[in-house]
Amino acid sequence: MRLQVHGERHKVSLETADDGEAASRARDLYELVVANGWTTGRRSFEAKLLNHARSLGKCATVKEIAEAYLRGGSGSIGTREEIVDNLYSLVSSVKGCEHPDYNRDKDAHARWKELVGGTALGSISEEEFQCWRLKAERGEVFSSKTGKPLALATIDKKLRLYRSIFGKKSLPAFKQLALPDDIPGISLPFFDPQPLGFVECVSSEFLMGKAVDLLFPDRLELLKVVLLCLCVGLRRGEVDRLTWRAFNFDERTIKLAPETLRRLKWRSSAGVLPLSQEINDFFKGLMGDHGKDGFVIRTPRGRNVANRKLDTLADRKGSNKYRANSVFEKVMSWLGQQGVNCRNRIHYLRKAFGWDICVQEGIYAASKALRHSNVLTTEHSYMAKKVEVIASYSKVRLPRIEASGGVAIHENGERSHADEGNIVQFELPADAPKRR
Prior knowledge:
The chain has 436 residues and is mostly helical. It has 4 domains: 2-55, no CATH class; 62-174, no CATH class; 204-381, Intergrase catalytic core (hpI Integrase, Chain A, Orthogonal Bundle), CATH 1.10.443; 390-436, no CATH class. It contains 17 helices and 8 strands. The protein has helices spanning 19-36, 38-55, 62-72, 77-95, 106-117, 126-137, 152-165, 204-215, 220-230, 236-241, 258-261, 277-287, 308-311, 325-337, 345-361, 363-370, 375-381, and strands spanning 2-5, 8-11, 247-248, 253-256, 271-274, 400-401, 407-409, 415-417. A 3-stranded antiparallel sheet has the order 3-4-5. It has a 3-stranded antiparallel sheet with strand order 6-7-8, with no helix packed on it. A two-stranded antiparallel ribbon has the order 1-2. Helix 15 (345-361) packs across helix 16. The termini are far apart.
């Protein structure tokens, strides 16, 4: 419907196919806009429609929530697709639906997705989520691919991804949907609240030395990846899409922005990163005749100049979304030979970068260097252990209290009782600063 009031004309959906109901809603909208103006009136009308939908039990379905989140949710398209896939998988597991493997039976997978997508979120109770959690704790929730029980860490990841859909930054994407007042499963506790932490396999200095000795000059692309992750703290996707345009060799910086990376994982991922003199000179010498739009990491397949066709690679899932995946696989193999035996070996380099900064400058400096939006992310996944800091005032000598009798022994050997009625006094050393 098109409505013109106060000299403004807008197109508004009445969310009904019934002529009589549409006329009634159009009248309500007109009255609200006349009385309150377009902005307030339209918000009041939309809120009224949502309340009406809830009263009729017309809660948003999983498919509607997924589509709205893909359109306007936070994060990159690849991250949003992973979160949406998790939503379907989680709802299917909670409702007890069998999840067929896409690669084995595409038709069965399509029917399963249609069935789960038509499930209203409000039809899932909090008790169903709690029962699902208890089954997971007993090892009765299984993987659709391997058939093995899901680890508790995987269950926690599913819950975190589910919560992220309804985060503060993504809620505006659902303003046209009738979400339940209390979203089920959003408050389920995690199994392992302990930080994942960073476990150092080999020292950063050892890796740097080995990389320079073994990779230069025959395996130069591998050396570039190691240096960008270990010395600058870039993510694998950022290294994959990094162009020479990002470098400012005069100011010794790398600028991470949509025009230099094509895509960003998060808004907080943008920034200007400082380079050491050695790293700056090294990449300055490598640039040579490469154009500004040339990728820093070159691949044997020749996809070394940024263009729109390559942008579609970032929409894929898994390792296939990386342009330089063949280079990354060689880097992971080489890191394994050097003793880096963790699951994500390239990401280990970024974690080592963050941990080295934390040791030298503190956790807040590490969080800024890693471009995290919240320092809690840095503490949870990138820190090896909690560092206990104890305040020490070496110039102040407190009296020693004997266990029996509460007798205070001063530096000059005098004794006094340290009871409630007798305040122990002592003198500061002569070199202590005096209050003015």
